[in-house]
Write a structure and sequence with these properties.
Elements (H helix, E strand, L loop, with lengths): L1 H12 L1 H7 L3 E6 L7 H16 L3 E6 L2 H10 L6 E2 L2 E2 L3 H25 L4 E5 L6 E5 L9 E6 L1 H9 L3 E5 L1 E2 L9 E2 L2 H12 L3 E6 L14 E2 L1 H9 L7 H13 L4 E6 L5 H7 L6 E4 L2
Parallel strand pairs: 1-2, 1-11, 2-8, 5-8, 11-13, 12-14
Antiparallel strand pairs: 3-4, 6-7, 9-10, 13-14
Helix pairs in contact: 4-5, 7-9
The structure holds adenosine-5'-triphosphate (ATP) and magnesium ion.
Magnesium ion binds next to loops.
Length: 284
Amino acid sequence: MQKKIEQAKLLLEALPYIKKYKDEIFVIKYGGSAQINTELKNRFAQDIILLYMVGIKPVIVHGGGKKINELLEKLEIKSEFVDGLRVTTKEVMEVVEMVLSGNINKEIINLLNMHGGTAIGLTGKDGKFMTASAKAGGKYGLVGEIETINNSVIENLLNEKFIPVIAPIASGGELGHPGYNINADLAASKIAGSLKARKIIFMTDIKGVLNKDKELLSTLTKEEIIAYKKNETIHGGMIPKVDACLEAVEAGVSKAHIIDGRIEHSLLLEIFTSEGIGTVIKNN
Ligand SMILES: Nc1ncnc2c1ncn2[C@@H]1O[C@H](COP(=O)(O)OP(=O)(O)OP(=O)(O)O)[C@@H](O)[C@H]1O
Ligand SMILES: [Mg+2]
């Protein structure tokens, strides 16, 4: 009996958060690096369904760096990273689209649907919901910078109780254009800002942002981010992630979190407990 009472108390601990977040949009960036094994993927899907069942509106944006690398390697197509972004030729773009929108997107949808949700997948090309132009004048090839987001596409899906699952590819806006590869972190932050999301959460393969001594930085300010980027404490894939956090909070999202997707139920731990995990960035 005592154990049952403890369980009930545990459930009640989540109550203030459930009240606070009901009907709010949470954008969750599901990093390719956090999509590790079947067990963790199932835990992720359960967590999303729980959020959904208590009235939170999850919008998922996913990455897929590792899988893209694997297929590029198999096909013997070379690609390189500059400033944490994948330089994208037309050939690479085809693979990016195949993996993101064909393989990973459908896998996540299937996972959520099998766990009791009604997830629907889309890229920026669907309903022309996201358009882009070449980033930095084409320095990174077909890496795009988002120009427009048509919110009504996502809002309609949310109103109809769907869980949108977005692959970070944008329409090039003209006939025959292969589309743009958008860094998933930056796509997530743009989408979160434009939907006026309450929170954005990045699930990745590390505890959060670490300092030079590999210690977790549980909070970060804009000034610290600038300094850590400058001295290369923050490098590679963490660069677009912290940029995305800043962009989101500056666009009105109240908090951006970077959490360890390798930990079981990391999403629930972050959202429904007072301690939280990982790194949080707030607008100051
Ligand atoms: N200061 C730092 N603190 C923590 N991680 C850092 C830091 N600087 C660089 N990184 C790197 O950033 C990586 C996370 O970014 P990465 O792009 O690899 O993953 P992701 O964005 O979750 O996945 P994907 O790009 O496939 O969606 C970490 O695994 C780590 O190697
Ligand atoms: Mg990344």
